[in-house]
Amino acid sequence: MSETRSFAARTWRTGVVTTIATLAVATATAGATTVSADAAQTQSTPASTSIAISVVRSSVVAGAGDTVRGQLTVPGASAAGRQVTLEAKTAGVDGFTPVGTATAGGGGALSVSVTPEVTTRYRWNYAGAADARPRLSGVALVKVRTTSHPARRLPATLSIRSVHHTVGFGGRDTIRGQLRSRGVALPHRSVVLQAHVPGTTGWQFRSTRSSNRHGKVSFSVHPQQRTAYRLFFLGSQVFRPAHSAVVRVAVRPTVTIAATPQRIDPGQTTTVSGTVSKAGTPLAGLTVDLLARKAHTHAAWKIAGTAVTAADGTVSLEATPAVDTSYRLRAHHATGVAAALSPVLSVVVSDPTSLSISGRHTGSTTVISGRLLGDHHALRGRTVVLESQAPGATAWTQAGSDRTARHGQVRFVEPTVTGTSYRLEFTGGGHFAPSTSATLAG
User: Which residue positions in the chain have pLDDT lower than 50?
Assistant: First the structure.
């Protein structure tokens, strides 16, 4: 009998080895470009996942903690790092609702701590991935023991509001709510924040908070796109489940602004440009207003120009301000895009200056005098350059420089050269524009 088994075992092992060797030869013969039907099917078909579920204690006292455990299995792939949602259902709730999330550890282990106030059913919900099919686990029941059994649970209400309603990309908003029953606040009750993002199915778990002594809860959110939020209370032995209305938080696009140049002389033009993007993607075809007001004031913004963003999200407008002016770009609202404003940018307009010139001959020398005014006031301590032009020359040459005196005056003494012309030049500086005097003929 033992010899028969030994022979059969040797025959089975030999057959397996022969089969494997045959497959290896066939694969080598087919070449590197040949893929077996099983391999092709594995690459194109997501794996059939499975999720086990269990609870540490199947019966707890109201308010006591418990742990829901699970095991995610993905044949042919690792389950580690995959996120799975824990859903719950209590009496009076239509269907399961998300109350937590877990990230699968080594071997696909899942675990979430729960504190049910009333008998609750739990299940795991895996949304799936490119290599794994979505999957629901079975249902685990946690019974909550209590000494009191009210004939009828009291109704509960749950309010909700968003502080800002609209935030910039990467910005933060606050979702607040209050849990009450017949006008009385319900403290120390677990309230779940859920979210719904366009393009997804169902509500997603975000966070859980315990209501304070006034029944209020507060959540910080960082939406990456327009997102709907609601609050959920699973109920207790005394109070029925409740969920709030839905609030939506929009995400504004990012609008940048720049001016070239940012400092100009009176009468000059500057180019105000910017880009409009959302989550790093340029937005083309959006109407953008250039808003302007006098700098360092709280005057109302006025539209100084309008343009449409190009394919790369850029926009450009020209402006010729007479005084220091603040600008910002305003992107209009469009389908799926909220209105948005850029930061404020100021363009500095230099104060106008004037430079007079006069001259007189004193024997072998010529005295050239001038006076520098800025915005009709004398400018003291400013450098003024004397330029000369020799007879028949076309270029001006620097002949000297000096600083203006108390009343903006400047004076140069040059050897008298018949036919030489002179002029004075102020190159600007501070908040003052450059200016050039008239020409003093020789």
Answer: 1-42
Strand ranges in 342-418 using DSSP code E only, listed in sequence order: 345-349, 353-362, 365-374, 377-378, 383-389, 397-403, 409-415
Secondary structure of 98-147 in HEC code, one letter for each residue: EEEEEECCHHHEEEEEECCCCCEEEEEEECCECCECCEECCCEEEEEECC
- Sign of the C-alpha dihedral computed for residues 417, 420, 421 and 426 taken in this order: negative
What CA–CA distance (Å, rounded) separates 251 from 339? 9
pTM over 0.85: no
259: which 2 tokens? 């001016």
CA distance 25 to 22: 5
* Strand, helix or coil for residue 53: strand
Phi-psi region of 199 (alpha: psi -120 to 50; beta: other; left: phi over 0): left
Tell me the residue ranges of DSSP E strands in 197-296.
Answer: 204-210, 216-221, 227-233, 242-243, 247-252, 254-255, 258-260, 263-264, 270-278, 281-282, 287-294
**pLDDT on residue 405:** 95
Strand partners, 387: 398, 423
Name residue 317's amino acid. Answer: L
**pLDDT for the residue 44:** 64
pLDDT digits (tens, 9 = 90+) for 83-111: 999 999 999 998 999 999 999 998 899 99
